[in-house]
Automatic annotation (TrEMBL):
<dbReference type="GO" id="GO:0016020">
    <property type="term" value="C:membrane"/>
</dbReference>
<feature type="transmembrane region" description="Helical">
    <location>
        <begin position="374"/>
        <end position="394"/>
    </location>
</feature>
<protein>
    <submittedName>
        <fullName>Major facilitator superfamily protein</fullName>
    </submittedName>
</protein>
<comment type="similarity">
    <text>Belongs to the major facilitator superfamily. Phosphate:H(+) symporter (TC 2.A.1.9) family.</text>
</comment>
<feature type="transmembrane region" description="Helical">
    <location>
        <begin position="414"/>
        <end position="435"/>
    </location>
</feature>
<feature type="transmembrane region" description="Helical">
    <location>
        <begin position="192"/>
        <end position="211"/>
    </location>
</feature>
<dbReference type="InterPro" id="IPR000109">
    <property type="entry name" value="POT_fam"/>
</dbReference>
<feature type="transmembrane region" description="Helical">
    <location>
        <begin position="145"/>
        <end position="171"/>
    </location>
</feature>
<dbReference type="GO" id="GO:0022857">
    <property type="term" value="F:transmembrane transporter activity"/>
</dbReference>
<keyword id="KW-1133">Transmembrane helix</keyword>
<feature type="transmembrane region" description="Helical">
    <location>
        <begin position="543"/>
        <end position="566"/>
    </location>
</feature>
<feature type="transmembrane region" description="Helical">
    <location>
        <begin position="498"/>
        <end position="523"/>
    </location>
</feature>
<feature type="transmembrane region" description="Helical">
    <location>
        <begin position="217"/>
        <end position="243"/>
    </location>
</feature>
<dbReference type="Pfam" id="PF00854">
    <property type="entry name" value="PTR2"/>
</dbReference>
<feature type="transmembrane region" description="Helical">
    <location>
        <begin position="63"/>
        <end position="90"/>
    </location>
</feature>
<dbReference type="InterPro" id="IPR036259">
    <property type="entry name" value="MFS_trans_sf"/>
</dbReference>
<keyword id="KW-0472">Membrane</keyword>
Length: 588
């Protein structure tokens, strides 16, 4: 009898908690997992970002590469890191899941950094020491380059696995539809995530760069490797408490299916207007007919023979023969933003010229005090701090002022922010050209034309304006790009904006390296000194900056044409609502 009464009390208590809307404490996920995820991502960024600024010096001094060759290697490295983000997203969404891909990326990054450290530690893994500008130095052998490029390749794979998955993995831990504050919780996490990213970059570009400058490559490469090992252990600690969303069909696979099916059905005729009776629609979605733009893609969702094309439950018998309306509209949304997306490629080329600015800083007076000298690779911190300061000012002060006095509660439109960013990038490269012209003239006047390692009596603080303008450009254009993509895509395509942004950075790195190669080859014809000579005092990096500025202005005109041509109507927008109630959330 007493046992029955106790059970009734327990049932009554449980029922009262349910009525009072107190959900049971989750056994997996929630805020307790976020420190592990954020620390893993932050340490990976500290380790990888810390290698980038001074890597140009390592390639020139230790591997005897020219400035153009070293710049091309770094551009390809950056391009690969960004392009492999798409590979990481596909791998996580379609095959392994985010947790396994993050672990794979962490291990790969650690192995790459450990191998890079070995190149600085074992003398036989790089050419013998030599003053390249005074003697004819031995070039690295094929095996030495193979080890170097293998280390950089492993780091690329790690970045491509971790960066596209880390934020989504954190969202998985917090996404609880029963929580009335779910959306605000996710926004808070994203804010902290980006704050940790900015802080990681500052730490990498100050502490890691300082260690490399003062304790050499062995210690400078050992520290990132140790941090990456710790990062791997941190993410593994929470293996048993993570929410692990099961994999599903990749969105990119659906894109390919639409293109293939539309091509196969290219000879069939489309209905004049009403598609409702002839189009296959996903039973889990509330949607309208396919949009009228790019009508030839609508053939992918036309049902030719219902008995053959559909299963008894209404699903396609073969997704490579019949697609749904939401698949078709998703592809249209993706293709519709490509022209605007392409304008971001030249923007990234403008902002990716930091290796040359690092070389400039190395030949200028970097002393803040008599005992403290700012590392040449740390000047990028001015850009990051400017970007972070403007984002905070824009969000907390500028937007409320616009809402109050201009009736614009959402602030500047995405396209306006993108355009401002493009102009600021052009101003930054123009400023860089002017400062380099002054620095080069001062070096020649001081008799340093044949002394590339000589320090000009000109403060490196003159480089701060160009880094500040680049920081403002970064604060305007990339957020505007991502907001533009999000406003055009449905929730089912929420992973596409970051993938597009990463892809633009990858393409810009490839085109940037091609541009460097073209300029270097064109300016050395006839035995002339290259604009991108290893001796900055004989070269003309200022001319190269002016070329970038001109291309940036041409890109801005192209951007204005795209804005005028882009007609975004309600019909063009994806007519998708959220998944209907009762949709299952598959988790391990």
């Amino acid at each position: 009898m007493e046992m029955e009464m106790e059970e009734e009390k327990i049932d009554s208590y449980s029922e009262s908690k349910t009525l009072l809307n107190f959900p049971p404490k989750p056994t997996k996920g929630s805020f307790r997992t976020l420190p592990l995820i954020i620390v893993n991502e932050s340490l990976e960024k500290v380790a990888s970002y810390g290698l980038m600024p001074n890597m140009i010096f390592y390639l020139i001094r230790d591997y005897h590469m020219g400035i153009a060759s070293g710049s091309i290697v770094l551009s390809l490295w950056s391009a690969s890191s960004n392009a492999l983000g798409i590979f990481g997203a596909l791998l996580s969404d379609s095959y392994l899941g985010r947790f396994r891909v993050i672990v794979l990326g962490s291990v790969s990054s650690f192995l790459g950094m450990a191998l890079l450290w070995l190149t600085a530690t074992i003398p036989h893994l790089k050419p013998p020491p030599c003053e390249q500008l005074k003697h004819s130095c031995n070039s690295p052998t094929a095996s030495q380059l193979a080890v170097l490029f293998s280390s950089l390749g492993l780091i690329c794979v790690g970045a491509g696995c971790i960066r596209p998955c880390s934020m989504a993995f954190g969202v998985d831990q917090l996404d609880n539809k029963e929580n009335p504050n779910n959306e605000r919780t996710l926004q808070s996490f994203i804010n902290w995530y980006y704050a940790s990213t900015g802080l990681s970059a500052v730490l990498a570009l100050t502490i890691i760069v300082y260690i490399q400058d003062h304790w050499g490559w062995q210690v400078g490469f050992a520290v990132p490797a140790i941090l990456m090992a710790f990062s791997t252990l941190v993410v593994l600690l929470g293996s048993s408490i993570y929410v692990k969303v099961k994999t599903s069909q990749s969105l990119f696979t659906g894109f390919v299916q639409v293109l293939v099916v539309a091509f196969r059905k290219r000879k069939i005729s489309l209905p004049p207007s009403n598609y409702d009776d002839s189009c296959h629609q996903n039973c889990e979605m509330k949607l309208l007919s396919p949009s009228e733009s790019l009508r030839w893609l609508n053939k992918a969702c036309i049902t030719k023979d219902p008995e053959r094309d559909l299963n008894p439950d209404g699903s396609p018998s073969n997704p490579w023969v019949l697609c749904t309306v939401d698949q078709v509209n998703s592809v249209k949304a993706f293709l519709g933003v490509i022209p605007m997306w392409s304008t971001g490629i030249m923007f990234s080329i403008c902002t990716n010229q930091l290796s040359f600015s690092t070389l400039q800083a190395n030949t200028m007076n970097r002393h803040m005090t008599s005992n403290f000298e700012v590392p040449a690779g740390s000047f990028i911190v001015f850009m990051i701090i400017t970007a972070m300061a403007w984002v905070a000012f824009y969000d907390r002060i500028f937007v409320p002022l616009l809402a109050r006095y201009a009736g614009s509660p959402n602030g500047l439109s995405p396209k306006v922010r993108m355009g401002i960013g493009l102009l600021l990038a052009c101003l930054a490269t123009a400023m860089a050209a002017i400062i380099e012209s002054i620095r080069r003239g001062r070096a020649i006047d001081e008799g340093l034309e044949n002394d590339p390692s000589g320090v000009v009596k000109l403060s490196a603080m003159w480089l701060v304006p160009q880094y500040t303008l680049l920081g403002l450009a970064e604060a305007f254009n990339p957020p505007g790009q991502i907001e533009f993509y999000f406003s055009r895509f449905p929730k089912s395509m929420s992973s596409i904006p970051m993938a597009l942004f990463a892809l633009a950075m990858a393409v810009s790195s490839l085109l940037g390296s091609l541009l460097v190669n073209i300029v270097d080859g064109a300016t050395t014809k006839g035995g002339k000194v290259s604009w991108l000579s290893g001796n900055l005092n004989k070269g003309h990096i200022d001319y190269y900056y002016w070329v970038i500025t001109f291309l940036g202005l041409v890109n801005f005109v192209y951007f204005l044409i795209c804005c005028r041509a882009y007609k975004h109507t309600k019909d063009d927008r994806i007519s998708l609502s959220d998944k209907i109630d009762g949709e299952s959330d598959y988790r391990e």
